[in-house]
Design a protein that fits this description.
With 295 residues, the protein is of the alpha+beta class. The protein contains 11 helices and 10 strands. The protein starts with 7 loop residues before the first strand and ends in a 13-residue tail after the last helix. Keywords: DNA-binding, Transcription, Transcription regulation.
């Protein structure tokens, strides 16, 4: 994946009044350090400030001390840290080498997203080399080697896109990569087979064999949303398809996707899609879709 990329680092200092308010690419690199080497960066002693660093280990060993705690960094380990802060990352004296990629960002919005990520997930991560954030850095390095980055808006787009890749991985891909317990799989199958019926949460829970409290916690942990929210999304996707492809009444469509009340169906539809079923069907300013993706 990265054998055709040269060890190098790149810095960017475009005029950036706009970028300072959003996100900006400060530096990116692919480096390899061997002992004896003086590779050490302290977060309170750097000449730079207000930067955010993502660094991912490809090979060898590194270390990072955050406060009073030191963590060894091996293949697949990453850290996400800001400057200034009380940390130091370095090549330990007993390590032979450390090969890594890094991505450094600045910007007010980037700082907010950094706080959001680290508050929920911490500063240390374990990622596959094939994960989307790592793949994004490799692709950016290849792009810079071949074409460069020509202006500040391009650098800003690059930085913000990385943050979205990282957030998306943490919030969705990482969740989906976890094995779904059989009890939750049974519940999902039940929802997808019976969404057209007036099913209740208690009925969904009974399929799992778990208590309602534990089931709901496990479902959210596995799917990243509540059982009822998942059921609603299934119903809304089916309703969209019927509104576009069928000439059935709103009442009939409501019943077909599990709602006994067309008024309640219309209320839920508007909350999810942003307008009523009848308006969606009649509005020629909206491009119809066959599949809906919602969060």
């Amino acid at each position: 994946m990265y054998k055709d990329i040269s060890h190098n680092s790149y810095g960017f200092r475009f005029q950036r009044a706009y970028q300072d308010n959003v996100a900006d690419l400060h530096a990116i690199g692919f480096e390899h350090h061997q002992n004896p080497a003086n590779y050490s960066w302290h977060g309170l002693e750097r000449g730079e400030k207000d930067i955010i660093i993502f660094q991912y280990t490809l090979h060898g060993n590194g270390a990072i001390s955050i406060g009073d705690t030191t963590h060894e960094l091996t293949k697949g380990d990453a850290f996400f840290i800001d400057v200034p802060s009380d940390h130091r990352y370095y090549l330990p004296a007993d390590a032979e080498e450390w090969e890594f990629i890094f991505f450094t960002i600045t910007g007010t919005e980037a700082a907010k997203l950094y706080q959001q990520i680290t508050k929920k997930h911490g500063h240390l991560f374990q990622l596959s080399i094939h994960s989307s954030p790592v793949n994004y850095i490799f692709n950016t390095l290849k792009r810079i080697e071949t074409a460069g980055i020509s202006h500040g808006y391009e650098a800003s787009s690059c930085a913000y896109s990385f943050l979205m890749e990282f957030l998306g991985y943490l919030e969705y891909n990482q969740q989906q990569s976890k094995a779904i317990p059989p009890s939750i799989s049974k519940a999902i199958e039940f929802i997808e087979n019976h969404y057209s019926e007036d099913i209740t949460l208690d009925e969904i829970v009974s399929v799992s064999g778990l208590s309602k409290y534990y089931f709901t916690r496990q479902f959210v942990k596995s799917i990243n949303e509540t059982p009822i929210r998942y059921l609603t999304k299934i119903r809304m996707k089916k309703a969209l398809h019927l509104l576009i492809t069928e000439k059935k009444s709103i009442e009939d469509i409501a019943k077909e996707v599990g709602y006994t009340s067309s008024n309640y169906f219309s209320k839920v539809f508007k909350q999810t899609i942003g307008e009523t079923p009848s308006n969606y069907r009649q509005n020629t300013d909206i491009m119809p879709v066959n599949q809906l993706f919602t969060d």
